[in-house]
Amino acid sequence: MLDVRRLRLLRELSHRGTIAAVAEALMFTPSAVSQQLAALEREAGVALLERTGRRVVLTPAGIALVGHAEAVLERLEQAASELAAARTGLAGTIRIGAFPTATRTILPAALAALGREHPALEPMVDEIDPAEVAPRLRTGDLDVALVHEYDFVPTEPDLALDSLPLLEEPMYLATPANPATTSTASTASTASAASAAAHGTLPACRDEPWIVSAPGTLCHAMTVRACQAAGFAPRVRHHIDDFGAVLAMVAIGQGVALVPELGAADPPGGVDLTPLPMRRRTRIAFRRGAGAHPAIAALTAALRAGVGPSANAPGPAVPAPRV
Questions:
Q1: What's the pLDDT score for residue 294?
Q2: Of the four, 74, 222, 260, 318, which is 20 to 30 A from 214 by CA?
Q3: Splitting the chain (323 residues) into consecutive groups of 10 residues, what average pLDDT does each group show?
Q4: How far apart are CA 91 and CA 185, in angstroms?
Q5: Helix (H) or strand (E) holding 61
């Protein structure tokens, strides 16, 4: 009989590529992970791994077994969901991952409603960039997460996860509106940026300094790729993750930026916001098979009620992006 815990290790190895990365993610020692995978190979009776330097590559048998592991783990999530539904009332913790804009604008109303409906359910929120969500959902560190994807940032499905649509919002080009508020040294740049806002196009901002999120985040990749699609590479001056701070910097002439609608809900004076033909889509992600869990279903309902008619219509769960 194949051990489910060892199948989880093999699944994580297929994503992470090294024994050390799996050990770090699951808080094991590398030797313990190696021993468990060796035991799984003995159980399977065939070689599952091939070592190439520091990395470990799955054999065809190993790849096939990961596919079966995904199906087994999905059924276990479904079983846990059905057992939870059989209990009376919702209680315990639900671990939620959310990106900063969602933490500020979407979650408060949803958590307030959840608390009124299910006072014994304790939500625990961890602010996290969507790029880090998938591994933390797979390992059970999170139960559910809000993730987003942008135009120009293609994502590939993660077979361990499902997701449901929540919200779609436009993107805006943020440029300084009042050159007089800036220093003499930046006046020419700011005037050009204000002119760019009038044109409402990314190419008009090709010579401006840009304010972007930290490298490695989806927001950073979105800005860089959107500019590349417009025919130029952005000249990055600042790396700032908080959209409120980004707009404050735009207002004083420190650069231009791309911001989503939720991030631009309360812009400071001195900022022009020009809508662009780009979108950001927010989804509710969870482990495959866990969507019917009462706690996740209750949070999903509260989130959708909170965003109102701007939410997408309910639909079937689809494989979540590898975010």
A1: 94
A2: 318
A3: 91 89 89 93 93 84 94 92 87 94 93 94 92 90 93 80 94 80 40 46 92 92 94 95 94 95 90 92 94 94 83 44 41
A4: 59
A5: helix 60-86
- CATH number for the domain whose boundaries are 4-81: 1.10.10.10
Q: Do the beta carbons of residue 109 and residue 306 sit within 8 Å? A: yes
Q: Which fold has domain 92-168+281-321?
A: D-Maltodextrin-Binding Protein; domain 2 (3.40.190)
Please tell me the distance from the alpha carbon of residue 267 to that of residue 235, in angstroms, as a whole number.
Answer: 23
End-to-end Cα separation, the chain, in angstroms:
33
Contact 83, 290 (CB under 8 A): no
What kind and span of H or E run contains 318?
Answer: strand 318-321
Alpha-carbon span 160 to 322, nearest angstrom: 9
State residue 178's pLDDT score: 58
Give the length of the chain. 323
What local confidence, expressed as pLDDT, does residue 55 receive? Answer: 78
Task: Determine whether domain 170-279 maps to CATH 3.10.450.50.
Answer: no
User: With b meaning 16 or more CB within 10 Å and e meaning fewer, what string describes 180-196?
Assistant: eebeeebeebbbbbbeb
Reference 146, options 17, 286, 284; nearest CA is 284
C-alpha separations of 267 from 70, 260, 262, 281, 288 in Å: 45, 12, 10, 21, 38
Question: What pLDDT was estimated at residue 158?
Answer: 86
d(C-alpha 180, C-alpha 103), whole Å: 35
The answer to whether 2 touches 44, Cβ cutoff 8 Å, is: yes
- Give pLDDT, residue 157: 78
Structure tokens at 259: 């911001």
Asked if domains 4-81 and 170-279 share a fold, the reply is no
> Is 202 strand, coil or helix?
coil
Tokens 């993610």 belong to 25
Determine contact, residues 210/255, Cβ cutoff 8 Å. yes
